[in-house]
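Quick note —
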Amino acid sequence: MPYVADFAINEPARVEVDAWSGLTAIEFGAPWCPHCIGAQPLFETALAVRDDIRHIKIEDGPGRPLGRSFRIKLWPTLVLLRDGEELGRVVRPTVQADVDALLAQAG
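Predicted structure written out below.
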């Protein structure tokens, strides 16, 4: 699944995320966040060549359980999972190399 431009309408439960198979990149942020908006071209470019990675965008904020379960502090944060296990993350990337290095951990 390539880059997804829109935030998910419903936030999945952590138990559901932990049960996902394969590679997933979960992007935490907000549609109004300037850092998130600025990072979109980086995410889109990196994910355009990775059909093996599912991309999910989750709108985060106070009281949002999925973001809290991943201890998200700054937006955007892109968390890379394999079979529900975190491989790594990148926080507020500003250069393409940061996102590319994260996705390279998937092989």
